[in-house]
Specification:
- Helix content is 53%, strand content 12%.
- By secondary structure, the chain is an alpha/beta fold.
- It folds into 2 domains: 2-179, Rossmann fold; 188-284, ProC C-terminal domain-like (ProC C-terminal domain-like fold), CATH 1.10.3730.10.
- The protein has a 5-stranded mixed beta sheet with strand order 3-4-5-6-7, sandwiched between helices.
- The protein is globular, with a radius of gyration of 22 Å.
- Mean pLDDT is 91; it is low at 288-296.
Length: 296
């Protein structure tokens, strides 16, 4: 996800240098240098291979988060949620982050938890005097610049320049919306887990086509384009229920298929999947384990 976000930013900067159009609400300063940290030679090679095409000022630093944090103005925290304690409590990290903007994309890790790891015992107001922390939740579609990224509303509100910078960064990889902190776990489920749920439904649509004789490759293409076209109509202002009704001709094939889906409680199961994912998301930051002993 970190590679996708950096790639979106780098690509946007390259495009902006070639375009005469001026974007609104730009932050006063845009990134000019990028530092990516990793632990292995394999990860370093992957970062260089995937981001090298953007011709940006990029340094890849192995096993030295503190050095990168010291040199950066903005830090994107993109480790696995259960590693956050090790990362933020490492020696020198607190000092390296002081006065910086820390943007977290960690699922299930609220700002209060990040504050507690960095400055245990300090109030939210006291922490804000030392560091600015912003929680965000992008999704896997960042790779193709089609993420739905949710930004946690900060209290007190962020300075306008900082807010513009966060929005600018995240809008490089897709659409952005701000939401109240109490809804962040639900947004993690809907936006973060949602692509997996949508992929399952898309696969089922393709399976149905294959069962009726359509070759697999063509069925996958058709199912993907059907979902893409449907989302385009909804984003253009069409309500899903109205769209469904428009397709459902009396006595037609669509209403027959919809009845089968309703018999199978598809609507209820999909909604409950989001609810269950929300519960699990609330446990991610704590490193909680499920009944089988594996991490959520």
């Amino acid at each position: 996800m970190g590679i996708a976000i950096l790639g979106g930013i780098m690509d946007s900067l390259n495009s902006a240098s070639k375009s005469s159009e001026k974007e609104e609400n730009l932050p006063p300063r845009l990134p000019t240098r990028f530092l990516a940290t990793c632990r292995s030679d394999r990860s370093a090679s992957r970062i260089k291979n995937e981001l090298g095409k953007y011709k940006a000022n990029l340094d890849v630093i192995q096993s030295d988060n503190v050095r990168a944090m010291k040199e950066a103005d903005v830090v994107l925290l993109a480790c696995k949620p259960f590693y956050v304690k090790d990362v933020l409590e490492a020696e020198g990290v607190r000092e390296a982050l002081e006065g910086k903007l820390l943007i977290s994309i960690l699922a299930g890790v609220p700002e209060a938890q990040l504050e507690g790891l960095l400055y245990p015992g300090l109030s939210h107001e006291e922490v804000r005097e030392k560091i600015t922390i912003v929680r965000t939740m992008p999704n896997t579609a960042s790779k193709v610049r089609e993420s739905m990224t949710v930004i946690n509303q900060s209290t007190p509100p962020l300075p306008q320049d900082t807010k513009n910078l966060v929005h600018w960064m995240m809008s490089r990889i897709g659409k952005v919306v701000e939401i109240e902190p109490k809804n962040m776990d639900a947004c993690t489920a809907l936006c973060g887990s949602g692509p997996a749920f949508a992929a399952l439904i898309m696969e089922a649509l393709a399976d149905g086509g294959v069962a009726m004789g359509i070759p697999r490759a063509e069925a996958n293409l058709m199912a993907a384009q059907v979902m893409r076209g449907t989302t385009g109509l909804v984003q253009d202002g069409e309500h899903p229920a109205i769209l469904r009704e428009k397709v459902s001709t009396p006595g037609g094939c669509t209403i027959g298929g919809l009845l089968v889906l309703e018999d199978g409680a598809v609507r209820s199961h999909v909604s409950r999947a989001v609810r269950e994912a929300t519960v699990v998301a609330s446990l991610l930051g704590s490193g909680a384990k499920n009944v089988n002993g594996t991490r959520h």
